[in-house]
């Protein structure tokens, strides 16, 4: 069972006999996982496991679920915001699914979006934090840090994807939840992402559910809006010039449905979409197959995400141009409160 099939099973998209057999088995496996999470959090809450302070303010950006909430665009947004305040930012991540001796797609993308910002990838993020401070970092952003409780943080942000907020309703591996919803009580701020892609009624119900754990004034809404297209050569073009074109798309991200909705809302006619496991490393044979699908569909363009584009060097596949959709973050609800929180942190850095 590969990752794509696994996601179809736990989401209920696949309902054959194999799926019906596997789902109860996955639920049974989630029980020891749940107990382990409870014990670990209980030990941290009672200070039986140590939490280390570092010499500079730390922002943690994380999820309740595994991937797909839009952390990378938000990491770039925060980094660029503090850079404008002339603050030296360092990024800490574990390098999830990077090949031996290489960095992963998230670092490659953030290196492009935030040039010159040190990005330390190491499962031992405390060791990375020490190096960052020694190198002159004034503030650190801990990517995917909500469950990484060994480092103290000044701001604990949790991202929740409005399209799939609770990971299909179960803890891993039956669902995608890393922790129960009650873990949101540790959050200082919750950012609902892709709020423009769900109905108002769904958004209100989701907000009501979150308010059981987090005050309403600490809930922010964010949208990921397509800005323009970019290719492997760094060339760009406006969305308006190609928005009505027929396209074939592919991606290897945590929430492919969100990317598909982004393309549709931008006006593209998506003839076919190929989904790969999150953080997938493409082989040449797979890229050739995508090109074949594009020519068969008489596609004008092949579209992917910027997170995928950094892993390939081709600007054409089977003669069809390959472009990525550059995404910008727009805070639509709670912007003033969010900016105030960030400014308070910036002031704290300045006073050090």
Summarize, please.
36% of the residues lie in helices and 22% in strands. The chain has 352 residues and is α/β, with parallel strands linked by helices. Strands 1, 2, 3, 4, 5, 6, 7, 8, 9, 10, 11, 12 and 13 form a 13-stranded mixed β-sheet that branches.
Account of the protein in words:
- By secondary structure, the chain is an alpha/beta fold.
- The chain folds into 3 domains: 3-45; 58-224 and 330-351, 3-Layer(aba) Sandwich (Rossmann fold), CATH 3.40.50.300; 225-327, Rossmann fold (3-Layer(aba) Sandwich).
- Helices cover 36% and strands 22% of the residues.
- Strands 1, 2, 3, 4, 5, 6, 7, 8, 9, 10, 11, 12 and 13 form a 13-stranded mixed sheet that branches.
- The radius of gyration is 21 Å and the shape is globular.
Record the SSE blueprint.
Elements: H1 3-11, H2 17-45, E1 58-63, H3 71-84, E2 89-93, H4 105-113, E3 119-121, H5 125-134, E4 139-143, E5 155-161, E6 189-193, H6 200-210, E7 219-230, E8 236-237, E9 246-251, H7 256-265, E10 269-275, H8 284-296, E11 301-305, H9 306-309, E12 316-317, E13 320-333, H10 335-351
Parallel strand pairs: 1-4, 1-5, 2-3, 2-4, 5-6, 6-7, 9-10, 9-11, 11-13
Antiparallel strand pairs: 7-8, 7-13, 12-13
GO cellular component, one term: plasma membrane
GO molecular function: ATP binding; lipid-A 4'-kinase activity
Enzyme class: transferase
């Amino acid at each position: 069972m590969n990752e794509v099939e696994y996601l179809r099973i736990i989401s209920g998209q696949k309902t054959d006999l194999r799926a019906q057999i596997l789902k109860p088995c996955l639920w049974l496996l989630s029980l020891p996982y749940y107990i382990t999470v409870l014990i670990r959090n209980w030990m941290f809450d009672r200070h039986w496991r140590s939490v280390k302070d570092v010499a500079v303010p730390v922002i943690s950006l994380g999820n309740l679920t595994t991937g797909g909430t839009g952390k990378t665009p938000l990491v770039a947004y925060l980094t660029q915001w503090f850079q404008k305040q002339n603050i030296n930012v360092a990024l800490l991540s574990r390098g999830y699914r990077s090949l031996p001796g290489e960095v992963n797609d998230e670092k490659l993308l953030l290196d492009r979006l935030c040039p010159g910002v040190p990005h330390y990838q190491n499962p031992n993020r405390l060791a990375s934090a020490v190096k960052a401070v020694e190198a002159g970092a004034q503030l650190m952003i801990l990517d995917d840090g909500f469950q990484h409780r060994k480092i103290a943080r000044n701001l604990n942000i949790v991202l929740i994807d409005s399209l799939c907020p609770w990971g299909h309703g179960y803890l891993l591996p039956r669902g995608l939840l890393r922790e129960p919803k009650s873990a949101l009580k540790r959050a200082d701020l919750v950012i609902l992402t892709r709020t423009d892609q769900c109905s108002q009624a769904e958004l209100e119900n989701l907000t009501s559910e979150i308010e059981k754990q987090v005050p309403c004034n600490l809930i922010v809404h964010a949208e990921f809006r397509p800005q323009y297209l970019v290719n492997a050569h760094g060339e760009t073009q406006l969305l308006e010039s190609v928005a009505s074109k027929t396209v074939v798309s592919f991606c290897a991200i945590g929430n492919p449905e969100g990317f598909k909705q982004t393309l549709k809302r931008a006006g593209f006619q998506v003839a076919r979409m190929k989904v790969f496991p999150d953080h997938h490393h493409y082989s040449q044979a797979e890229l050739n197959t995508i090109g074949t699908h594009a020519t068969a569909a008489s596609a004008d363009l092949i579209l992917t995400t910027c997170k995928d584009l950094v892993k390939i060097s081709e600007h054409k596949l089977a003669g069809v141009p390959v472009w990525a959709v550059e995404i910008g973050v727009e805070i639509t609800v709670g912007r003033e409160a969010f900016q105030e929180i960030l400014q308070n942190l910036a002031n704290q850095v300045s006073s050090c």
